[in-house]
Amino acid sequence: MATITRNDCEQNALSKQVKDFAALVPGYIDEMYAAAVDAAAKIAEKDSALVRPSDVYVTGCGDSYCASMAAAPALRALLPGCTVHPVRANDLAGQIPSFMLKKGVLAMGISASGTAQRVLDGMVRAKGSGVFTIALTGNATTPLGKACDSVVALPKPEVVSPTPSVLSYAVSCLGVIFTGVGLALAAGTITKEQAEGYREDAKAYCVACGDLCQEQADDIFALAQELQDCDGFDFVGDDADFATAYFGSCKFAEGFGPFTVYDDSENWEHVNYFIKDTHHMATFAVISKSSPSLSRQLELLPVVEHLERKGVVVTDLPAESIAQKGLHIISLPEAPVSWLAPAANYLALSLLASYMTVLDGEPFFRGFAGPWGK
Amino acid sequence: MNRLDYHSPMVQQAVETPTMLPPIIEASFSDEALRAALPADPSSIKQVILSGCGDSFASGAATYPAFAQLCQLPAQGISALYCGRYTTPAELDGALVILNSISGGVSRVVESARHAKAHGAFTVALTGDPESPLGKECNSVLQLKDMPYMPGTPKVIAYTASCVGQFYLAAKLAQAQGKIDDGEYQDIRHALYRYGTSDLAEVIDEIDETVFGCMDKWAKFDRYTMLGDGGDYGAALFSGFKYPESVGRMANWDDTENFNHVGYFHRELDKIGTAMAISADSPTLQRAVKTAETLCQLGRMVVIATDADRELFPKEAVVCTMPKASYPWMAAGFLHIPLSLLASYPHALEPDMLAPYRKKQGVWDNANISRLQDSHIEVL
């Protein structure tokens, strides 16, 4: 059988999204910034109180739920005094008590296609309870767009279907972040110069992440080969880092279908620490230098090493500052603003998922064949 | 095989809940004890956070809807890491923060207590040891008393007691705030006691037989997925935790919608056991039922713990029917019992495995590494 090379792995549409990331995403950011600032200004024109909500709910399904978690720190920073709730679409659709959904609250629903039924259910319920609703979707004519009070149009990356999304995820994360920027600008919490500064910071950071990922592609390919004998993948991160960890687990599941587990760095010590087959288990720790729980995340690393698991650290910390030399380090650039980190720090995990899918010979989404084709 | 021969200490904690629970409730959750756990002015409470690590995190995730529904207050069940390092001043303003830890010695809950207090929250330790670091750190203590002594075994009855205690506290806070009257408060107390004792006693043997009956297949899986929505997600979390703890196998957890976007694509379906916690009164019941149908169409083995009618679910699913709960929030605090049995029997049946918690053998012998009680505490 012919040996699979890195070049072979670069041919699929998941690798291509990672490769194109640095070239495409800055343009998406410009589009979304303009759309979000415009939408927020119109909302403020209607009622200035709407851009100063007491609570913000952000929801989506799958990757879009990840995006809601990833963007939460940005919203907390941009909308001071506002409580931000990244929530599962099922929760907004029914589990959250009605008395919490009321006037003065804002909800953002993410669905690029605008057809995710549970997101639609949640946003309709929220709107019916007096919540002001913003759809982050392809355009105003999608079902979600039509159901909400306002729309921030998301660019639609051209990707061969079906392929696990990376660019759409970028668009979702950044769409929520820049909706937050737009609301803060309309509320007068930040100036136009600050808002434009965030836009330029985001563009520069996305380019830096895309470039550094490509620079590390040989290492990532070697790592993919090394991990081929693993049949369990464990992803650990806290808050926004959890979103990146969880997104990584999604790409693995969608890509080549292995069993994936995920947790925060404290709970991991109480639960997944006890997984028995340590030699066929890889643990991925996503650690941002600016994380409020950095000290706890770093305590995890000697434990992973001691367990003799294959360990991978995805971090913007200097590689030399990680004392556990048996762990594989994937380096990230430092984000210019801490809450921008989750907007692009998932590229290496996505590329790894892509390479492992090719090495494994597995079709994306199981090819929607057999039991998955019903 | 006779299932009674496999009633390990972990199995016993589930099947003997109806006899283990009454002394705990009577010793721990008197009206006086509950009142003493609350602030002098209960009307000062504007929101509620339930938190802990591992099982204790799951118990908050299972029971927060009781606070939301009975007290009509914003409530959330969150991990201690999130509570200590990520909650904002707005989330802690006027908050009742209930920190759950049987030992009371885990760094992260102590850290959460300090962080919450520093931002003006009223903190309650739900613990077996009032003299523990957590007990000493909090404004008040609700002590779990008369817990059966079962060292070295994954906990089930302690989790059940934690859930029940938090339900009692939710009812007491609702009464103290005038959200329910004394009669309703007493009705809830009686309903909780009855559900965990006599009601459960009527069905537990049949559930045990049902669960044991599927072990030919279930015990041979090497990975498990647990699903639930709202409070049922807490039951799913807890039962998922039992697999790494007991047999050392992987488990993950999700809600019934998100599963369709992610875990649906896991391959090697013959290696994965899937279980669901589904309350009859769940607002997302229909989505849960639909997901059960999807799982059966995939050919995955599905076991469902529910207090809803059997007829709602696909005939291929194994259904453990619990008594119908009297309140919409209540079943979520008990649906882990059948699911814990599911996690317990593989442990009892497998003859050559490492002991629970890997018995601190081999690579798990790492006494020199900071893990739980000596993790660095930071108050941000």
TrEMBL record, chain A:
Pfam families: SIS. Signal peptide: none annotated. It comes from the Bacteria. It catalyses: D-fructose 6-phosphate + L-glutamine = D-glucosamine 6-phosphate + L-glutamate. GO terms for molecular function: carbohydrate derivative binding; glutamine-fructose-6-phosphate transaminase (isomerizing) activity. Residues 46-195 form the SIS domain. Its EC number is 2.6.1.16. Keywords: Aminotransferase, Transferase. SUPFAM superfamilies: SIS domain (SSF53697). GO terms for biological process: fructose 6-phosphate metabolic process; protein N-linked glycosylation; UDP-N-acetylglucosamine metabolic process. PANTHER family: GLUCOSAMINE--FRUCTOSE-6-PHOSPHATE AMINOTRANSFERASE, ISOMERIZING, GLUTAMINE--FRUCTOSE-6-PHOSPHATE TRANSAMINASE (ISOMERIZING). This is Glutamine--fructose-6-phosphate aminotransferase [isomerizing]. It comes from uncultured Anaerotruncus sp. The lineage of its organism: Bacteria, Bacillati, Bacillota, Clostridia, Eubacteriales.
